[in-house]
Design brief:
The chain has two domains: 2-131, Response regulator (Rossmann fold, 3-Layer(aba) Sandwich); 140-226, Orthogonal Bundle (Arc Repressor Mutant, subunit A). It has eight helices and twelve strands. The protein has helices at 10-22, 34-44, 61-71, 86-94, 107-136, 164-175, 183-190, 197-210; strands at 2-6, 26-31, 48-52, 76-81, 99-102, 137-139, 144-147, 152-155, 158-159, 181-182, 216-219, 223-226. The two termini are 42 Å apart.
């Protein structure tokens, strides 16, 4: 986990760094200005930033936080401040800060805030992974699913052994699962030479025998589409 400290006062900056290093965290640097903070955040891509709100710079910590969040909405920003008034809360809301710490720092407050930040990052990473899996897996009828990586058909979690041409057809239909592919269009894509429609029908018949009669659906004799999982209510 990479942490950036943005603080223009040397003593509190070094103290915070010492606490973080003692706990095994990676401190990628200390920025003394808002401009430097933005540059480091863009280049080093930290997970967490401890940001002094009142930097003695043309770019305040609050403004730097807003710009950094624009570049990377996932970075967590923890404000450092000597004040806990309405203006501070307004800064935190505007910059979408995760939390804020009051100066002088206390070790237990620093570490407790970090634990909360780590938990939030883990939750976001887990959600992102689940979303990625959902994007890579297409749920089909009767317990079947098509996995875009490694381009295979599965039934209740077990791979279905199909020939190359059958897999090619399944892959084609799954590229646009909500539309119907015309018969001639499918033949042109699957074979490099003209084939009678019966060739495609025979291929689909074999696939249905090995899987489900509903996996590849005939749409008004116009073409075929993949059978998607019914959402139900």
């Amino acid at each position: 986990m990479k942490i950036l400290i943005v603080e223009d006062e040397l003593i509190p900056a070094n103290y915070l760094k010492k606490v973080l290093l003692a706990q095994g965290y990676e401190v990628i640097g200390i920025a003394k200005s808002g401009e430097r903070a933005i540059a480091l955040a863009k280049h080093e891509k930290p997970d967490i930033i401890f940001m002094d709100v009142m930097l003695q710079d043309s770019i305040s910590g609050a403004d730097a936080a807003v710009e950094i969040h624009r570049l990377d909405p996932h970075v967590l920003i923890i404000f450092l401040t000597a004040y806990s008034d309405e203006e501070m809360i307004e800064f935190a809301v505007r910059a979408e800060a995760f939390a804020y710490l009051l100066k002088p720092y206390r070790d237990n407050e620093i570490l407790a805030t970090l634990q909360l930040a780590k938990a939030k990052l883990r939750g976001e990473k887990s959600l992102s992974s689940k979303q990625k899996v959902q994007e890579d897996v297409l749920l089909l009828v009767n317990g079947y699913s098509y996995h875009k990586k490694p381009e295979r058909l599965f039934f209740n979690g077990s791979e279905v052994e199909l020939g190359p041409k059958a897999l090619e057809l399944i892959k084609l239909l799954c590229t646009q699962p909500t539309i119907t592919f015309e018969i001639d269009e499918i033949i042109d894509i699957l074979w490099d030479e003209p084939k009678p429609k019966q060739t495609l029908r025979s291929l689909i018949h074999r696939i249905r025998q090995m899987t489900s009669s509903e996996l590849i659906q005939n749409v008004n004799k116009f073409g075929y589409k993949i059978g998607l999982e019914s959402k139900g209510v």
